[in-house]
UniProtKB/TrEMBL annotation:
This is Alpha-ketoacid dehydrogenase subunit beta. Residues 7-182 form the Transketolase-like pyrimidine-binding domain. The lineage of its organism: Bacteria, Bacillati, Actinomycetota, Actinomycetes, Pseudonocardiales. It comes from the Bacteria. The keyword Cytoplasm does not apply. GO terms for molecular function: magnesium ion binding; oxidoreductase activity. Keywords: Oxidoreductase, Pyruvate, Thiamine pyrophosphate. It comes from Amycolatopsis azurea DSM 43854. InterPro entries: THDP-binding, Transketo_C/PFOR_II, Transketolase-like_Pyr-bd, Transketolase_C. Its cofactor is thiamine diphosphate. The keyword Oxidoreductase applies.
Length: 330
């Protein structure tokens, strides 16, 4: 019998972390304010109280130190879960991530594994100051040796964080911070189900007019646009990538061969991005099926703006619908 719980993304992550810690004493959580405070977004709330300071560690404000310590722990058989408080603070740890975390398994010919999960709240929409609303996921997807995941709903949050922790590969786990506690994004989670494979894309809404592919916080925008388009007689198929490296584009190819059109949606800047890769791969694999060029709806190629301007920066329902109309006009 299903054990259903209606959860927000934030609560699902909290319960997923708790279950992983219960099942494996080698799982440790570490980061700035993750213990007594429970994290600035309260994702680790209550975990230090229940598992102790030896397993939920409040660290200094030093991302390089957090990641470097996790490397040492992983070498010794632990499964550290690091929280980067805001995505814009990850760059002091970029050297450790790209030079050590991503390379040690390869460098040692498989003798050393790096079962490290780096949790990264990312994206805009919370009215924050500079360095608190970035979308750096493309940088990490470009680094061989890393896997990059981005969840968009409570089911994937609950199961995905557990699957990432159990993986022997290092995983960057990007979480849409503006959706952490959104009541609109609550969903029923069967905590005893068999989860989908973590590294597979999923069609989350079927359609025939055009395909919209998105990930993380942009999936909600795509679904809202599909609902609005239905009133105009347009049927949008929405695909949630779920994992950004490795990219599972087979469902996208299949969808584009059916609809003939693709809109790639992301909050990140457009140049040298995941939407660029998707556009290139789809046009390579589905050229004779396309009725229009692949179009993209993204953030702009500028630093993230002040909070008063972010509603103009972030892709929204109207920009998606306008791009669908452009595609249909070809």
């Amino acid at each position: 019998m299903a054990d259903l719980q209606k959860l927000t993304i934030g609560k699902a992550l909290n319960l997923g972390l708790r279950r992983a810690m219960e099942e494996d004493p080698k799982v440790l959580i570490m980061g700035e304010d993750v213990g007594k405070l429970g994290g600035v977004f309260r994702i680790t709330d209550g975990l230090q109280k229940d598992f102790g300071e030896q397993r939920v560690l409040d660290t200094p404000l030093a991302e390089s130190g957090i990641i470097g310590t996790a490397v040492g722990l992983a070498v010794r058989g632990f499964r550290p879960v690091c929280e980067i408080q805001f995505e814009g603070f990850i760059f002091p740890g970029f050297d450790q991530i790209s030079s050590q975390v991503a390379k040690l398994h390869y460098r040692t010919q498989g003798k050393i594994k790096m079962p490290i999960v780096i949790r990264v709240p990312f994206g805009g929409g919370i009215g924050a100051v500079e360095h608190h609303s970035e979308s750096p996921e493309s940088l990490f997807a470009h680094i061989p040796g890393l896997k990059v995941v981005s969840v968009s709903n409570a089911v994937d949050a609950y199961w995905g964080i557990q699957q990432a922790i159990k993986s022997d590969d290092p995983i960057l786990f990007f979480e849409p911070k503006k959706l952490y506690h959104s009541g609109a994004m609550k969903s029923e989670v069967d905590v005893e189900a068999t989860p989908d494979e973590l590294f597979k894309s999923r069609v989350v809404r079927e359609g025939t007019t055009a395909t919209v592919v998105a990930y993380g916080p942009s999936v909600k925008v795509a679904l809202d646009a599909a609902t609005a388009a239905e009133d105009e007689g347009k049927s949008l198929e929405v695909i949630d990538l779920r994992t950004l490296s490795p990219l599972d584009l087979a469902p996208v190819f299949e969808s584009v061969r059916k609809t003939g059109r693709l809109i790639a949606l992301s909050e990140a800047p457009s140049e040298s991005s995941l939407t660029s890769e998707i556009a290139a791969r789809v046009q390579q694999e589905c050229f004779y099926s396309l009725e229009a060029p692949v179009l993209r709806v993204t953030g702009f190629d500028t630093p993230y703006p002040p909070a008063k301007l972010e509603e103009h920066y972030l892709p929204d329902l109207d920009r998606v619908l306008h791009t669908v109309d452009r595609s249909l006009a070809w």
